[in-house]
Design a protein that fits this description.
- It contains six helices and two strands.
- It has about 170 residues and is mostly helical.
- The chain has one domain.
- The chain has a two-stranded antiparallel sheet.
- α5 packs antiparallel against α6.
- The radius of gyration is 16 Å and the shape is globular.
């Protein structure tokens, strides 16, 4: 059994205080390598490709209460990662992938192509540790950006928000 002191010594270099600072309205450039951008959820989902992002939701990492999408406040993954374990990302936890992550992300919508992005997380999330936050975010942005129109490819429908063409993302 891992003690609390052992777990604390294995915590990532991303500090919780920095995550909370990222929840203010600052530009993404100001978040560079210091804070967790709103476009990355604790579970590894790239919020920047969510159809609600920037409209009714400011991203899973945001603590801004002035947004109409409220489902993240009840998210068990977010609560466990941020409030119970005090991590910035689930992948930093020694129990990852835990029962909560498996149940919410990997054991639902198994045969539904709209949720393909969820099943890519285990293969992609490890890159955060090897690439670092800045490079990982650039990797995610480029994966979800249309090379033709520059628009964002949104999950669920996998359509580009500018040219409206379908584009399925590959696990690069």
């Amino acid at each position: 059994m891992v003690t609390g002191q052992e777990r604390a010594s294995k915590r990532p270099t991303f500090l919780i205080a920095k995550r909370y600072a990222a929840c203010t309205n600052v530009s993404e450039a100001m978040l560079s390598n210091c804070h967790i951008p709103h476009t990355l959820a604790p579970c590894g989902v790239y919020c920047g490709a969510c159809p609600s992002f920037g409209k009714s939701c400011l991203g899973c990492a945001s603590n801004e209460t002035n947004q109409s999408r409220r489902s993240k406040w009840g998210c068990k993954i977010r609560y466990c990662c941020y409030e119970i374990k005090k991590y910035d990302f689930c992948i930093d936890c020694l129990e990852y992938p835990c029962k909560i992550v498996n149940t919410k992300l990997f054991k639902t919508h198994i045969d539904d192509p709209r949720f393909t992005y969820r099943f890519e997380i285990p293969g992609l999330f490890g890159k955060l540790k090897t690439m670092g936050l800045d490079k990982y975010m650039e990797f995610q942005r480029s994966r979800w950006t249309c090379e033709n129109c520059g628009g964002t490819i949104k999950f669920y429908c996998y359509k580009r928000d500018k040219c409206n063409k379908e584009k399925y993302i590959t696990n690069q």
